Amino acid sequence: MNQVIKRAFLDTEDGQILYRIGGEGEPLLLLHMTPRSSDEFREVMPILAQHRKVIAMDLMGLGDSDKPPRVYSVADYAKTVIALWDELGIQKSSILGSLTGGYIAGELAAAYPERVDQLILCNVHGFDKEETDKIAKRYSQGFSIKEDGSHLMQRWLARVNYVGNGELNHRCVLEDLKCFGSPVYTGMAVANYCLDAKERFSLIKCPTLILSGEKALEPLEKSGLAKIENQLWLSETITHSHRVELKGGTLWMMNQIPEEISKVVINFLENH
Q1: 35: cis peptide before it, omega within 30°?
Q2: 242-251 residues labelled b (16+ CB within 10 A) or e (exposed)
Q3: Could you tell me the residue ranges of all domains in the chain?
Q4: What is the dotted CATH code of the domain comprising 6-126+194-271?
Q5: Contact, 211 vs 234, CB < 8 A?
Q6: I need a surface site. Which of 7, 12, 22, 39 has the fewest CB within 10 A?
Q7: Contact 31/104 with Cβ under 8 angstroms?
Q8: Mind listing the pLDDT tens digit for each residue in 244-255?
Q9: What averages of pLDDT result for each successive group of 10 residues across the chain (272 residues)?
């Protein structure tokens, strides 16, 4: 039976954060990639909510959360998670983070080990200095509105070869448009954090699943934002981790294969 997923807002000193919540039982927080929102988990949440209390938040500056008054760091984003947990009365939670959200999830496990039960890092790619400089530049410039409206087609075509030209791409474009007119703060935060991530992630002690899609690196590699030789760092840094690669999985696999992902996630949470 599908669980009802409701939406609500958390008030913080830097603005409002939208979050989705549903289900009962042990909590599981979902943190999305950039420049998406909690909509990344629209398909998977009702499935996971049959087993857990599931929460997904729009990171500040993305989706329907407010833009922060300054460029947030990954540590700042981690503090917003703590604020949400405190508001909901959650003392300890498991976390699933997708790419950008995975870096924030890892920082939470490193900085607040007493608050994190189990950790799932999904498509958390590694980046070197050359790549992080490119990412920082791209996101500091953000997206620009063109007088002739050509920016709309540009965003439609940006990932159509990977996502397809249907409803999911439409959802991604809507999320892109919410980022226009300002820097994409989450991307800048992760770009600034990546080179310290190995040191920070070496502090992670909780049970950890490294979940990746077989084809998830492809668009980043083709755009020059990630190299295949930089992708062993998670397993090397979190030596007690367990790794699963999903055949055919992409960066957007949360929407594309939610049943397969839910099966792996629930199996990990119940057996580790």
Answers
A1: yes
A2: eebebeebbb
A3: 6-126+194-271
A4: 3.40.50.1820
A5: no
A6: 7
A7: yes
A8: 999 999 999 999
A9: 88 97 97 97 97 98 95 96 98 98 98 98 94 91 92 93 90 94 91 93 98 94 88 94 96 97 98 89
